[in-house]
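Q: what does this look like with zinc ion bound?
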Amino acid sequence: MTEDKKYNWLNTISLSLTFILACTLVPWYGIKYGFTGFEWAVFGFFMVFTGTGITVGYHRLWSHKTYEANAVFQSWFAFWGAVAAQNSIISWSRDHRDHHKYVDNNEKDPYSAKKGFWFSHILWIFQDTRTDKDYGNVKDLQANKICTFQEKYYMPMLIFGNFVLPALIGYIGHTINPHANGLAHSMIAMFLVAGLLRFVLNHHFTFFINSLAHIWGAQPYAKKDTSRDNFFLALVTYGEGYHNFHHTFQSDYRNGVRAWQFDPSKWIIWTASKLGMTWKLKRMQKWQINHKKQEFWGVQSLEGALEQLKTKDMPELKAKLEKTYEEWKTALEAWSAARRKSKTCQDAKMQVKDLQNALLTKRDEFCEAVNSIFANPHSAPALG
Ligand SMILES: [Zn+2]
Ligand SMILES: [Zn+2]
């Protein structure tokens, strides 16, 4: 990545022009000739197909590998992802994996939110920040035949889905229910809504995840980066608005982790798993996300510590630490359960307080033990 601003003129002109035309041509045509219910229905389908091509396919399947899917499922989302015109799966995932790895780092995060709303929303695409040819972080996708096929035929698919297909559906629609102004109008009107308008809306809704979902909303899971949970963004992004959860637990196939949270992408992946089209859906353990203040409880630091210990040849100590860790998890689950009851019962409230204290003691013991190993490798700290 380079700091000097080199503009990618193809991106700049095509994104600006489509935006201007969608804001002018579509309303003008609508007022002059009107759009039919059929045209709006096709627009709706195209919105959902291209939108989920990005969320269910590009994002959760390929970038994060939160589940696995069969070839039919993959091909469908690879095609509609190409129609969404946000680059090939491989390029998109390369940028997105770097976004997670280096989030908010102005040098290495391709769309760092720290560089402001407009940069993370669209200027990074105009400025073409990824001119390097390093594809080291997507070798797995380069070994996937569907991804390489999509990379190769990305442009033909994009043109077919955005121009040919809407016009073709307009043509077929005309043979069933002729347009008052003739065949050309059936094709043009369909292209304007299902092609042009949908193209622009789908772009900006996705771009909001990189811009607004790093500015506007709550941070219930972690404050380690700028990501936010935002219900309103989830509405237009098929559930991707729960971005703080996603940045905290990126391997989870859900973004709206609660059952009631609006996350159609998660519902699609789950339903497909019942039909045998997807499998190995990754979920975080309930106890890990059952409480709000992850950093307060230090879940990640504890797991990190255990991970660090794997390099040490101290089996007895490891066993003791793992036992403490298990006890700590049990205590945390009990605390969560008691907390749920505490809203109605005074006794439970007291229990919560006791458990909370016990839990904190447990955590401190654990951290101290781990620290002492690294400070003095020969000492074996006393642990329950
Ligand atoms: Zn992501
Ligand atoms: Zn993000």
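The longest helix spans residues 346-375. Residues 99, 214, 227, 243, 247 surround zinc ion (ligand 2) (CB under 6 Å).
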